[in-house]
Amino acid sequence: MRYGYARVSTEDQSLEIQLAELRAAGCQDIRSEKMSGGSIDKREAFTKLLQELKAGDELWVVRIDRFARSLRDLAVTVEDLVKRGVALKATQQPIDTTSASGKAFLGMLGVFAEFERNITAERRTAGIKAAQAAGKYTKCGRPKKEVNTAAVLSRAAIVGSEMAGAEFGLSRSAVYRMVAAAKAA
To answer: Is residue 14 flagged as an active site residue?
Structure first.
C-alpha cells in the first residue's frame, strides 16, 4: 500500500500543498501533523504510521525535511524501514530507498538538511546576542504574569490549586510553585 506523510511546524501553516502532492502520487492513506519536526518520538501520527507499515508498503513524503530533521533520526528510521521491506520515496526529490542512487541521494540530503538546521540555530543565537548587546532583547521566554501572590495562595487554600489557578489565569503547576515557594520562605 502507498502511504503519505505530511507535516508543518506550526498551527498557522497549511498542509494543503503537501496533501495535494501526496494524493497526486497515488497515496491511499495520508497522515498529517502540525508540529515541530525536531523529535520523531513526539510526533504521534508519524510514530503510529511507522508501526503500521509492513513489507511491500511505500512511505511517501513531499521532501525529506518533512520526514526527519536530524541525520541521526533519518538514518535510524530509514534503516528500520529498509530492514522491514518498506520503501521511502519523495515527490519533490529523487529519493527512493529501493535504488542505490536513491539511497545515496537520501544520505546527502540528510547531511544538508542537518547542516541547514545548524546554520539557522547559529544565526538565531547570533541575532539574540546582537539584540542583547544593543539592549533590545532582555528576556527569553514568555513574559511573567503579574499576580497578587498572597491572593492566589489564600484562594488556593480554600478552593485548591487547580481552581485558584483558573480564577487567576494561571496553570495548576504555577500555583503549586507559588505554594512551595511560600512554604520554603
So the answer is: no
Calpha distance 33→14 (Å, rounded):
10
Cell digits of residue 22: 501526496
- At 151-160, the pLDDT tens digits run 999 998 999 8
Residue in the block written with cell 494543503: 16
Cβ neighbours of residue 108 closer than 8 Å, sequence gap 6 or more = none
Q: Catalytic: which of 9, 32, 36, 99?
A: 9
Per-residue pLDDT, 35: 79
Which residue from 97, 104, 35, 110 is spatially nearest to 68, judged by alpha carbons? 110
Q: What is the mean pLDDT of the chain?
A: 85
Which 3 state secondary structure label does DSSP give 21?
Answer: helix
